[in-house]
């Protein structure tokens, strides 16, 4: 597939490389702008199965660092 795209791009190697970079950037932009927001409500990322437990188990260190 990539070889087919490369063969059909116009220009020499540097022009093809520039066009390929622009195509990849456009695809990434389209994914983050339209595709991922559209698909996000259908994905089970909000179905958390980890129990929170007792959140008060960790006591802060008076010196400001991490306990331990």
Structure in a nutshell:
The chain is an all-alpha fold.
Provide a descriptive summary of the structure in words.
This protein has 68 residues and is an all-alpha fold. The chain has helices at 2-8, 13-39. It starts with a helix and ends in a 29-residue tail after the last helix.
* Portion in beta strands: under 5%
Number of helices: 2
Termini, distance in Å?
54 Å
Which series of helices and strands comes N to C? HH
Q: Average pLDDT across residues?
A: 82
Given helix and strand content, the structural type is: mainly alpha
How many strands? 0
Helix content: 40-55%
The Cα radius of gyration reads 24 Å
Low-confidence spans = none
Q: What would you call the shape?
A: elongated
Sheet of most strands: none
Reconstruct the topology from this structure.
Elements: H1 2-8, H2 13-39
List keywords for this structure.
mainly alpha; single chain; 2 helices; elongated; 68 residues
């Amino acid at each position: 597939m990539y070889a087919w795209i490369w063969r059909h791009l116009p220009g020499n190697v540097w022009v093809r490389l520039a066009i390929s970079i622009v195509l990849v950037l456009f695809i990434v932009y389209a994914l983050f702008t339209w595709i991922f927001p559209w698909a996000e409500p259908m994905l089970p990322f909000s179905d958390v199965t980890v129990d929170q437990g007792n959140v008060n188990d960790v006591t802060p260190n008076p010196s400001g660092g991490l306990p331990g």
